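2.7 Reproducibility. Because tokenized structures are sensitive to small changes in the input, we list the exact sequence used for 2TM domain-containing protein, including any N-terminal residues retained from the expression construct. No trimming or masking was applied before prediction.
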Amino acid sequence: MNTSTTIFQSFKQYAVALVFLGLINLITSPNTLWVIWPALGMGIALLSEILGISSSKKVS
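Resulting structure tokens (single pass, no recycling of outputs):
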């Protein structure tokens, strides 16, 4: 797999997880949008992956 495919898969997983969390948020507590906090954390992780900043080095 190349890098763009891996990043695209990560983005799809990010989107699915946030939709799921968003639905849970709207069902359980629609007056408090706590879903922004997981979105920010996951967004930082995704951005880190896109920029290639990783604590573990891949061995080819």
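The chain has a mean pLDDT of 85.
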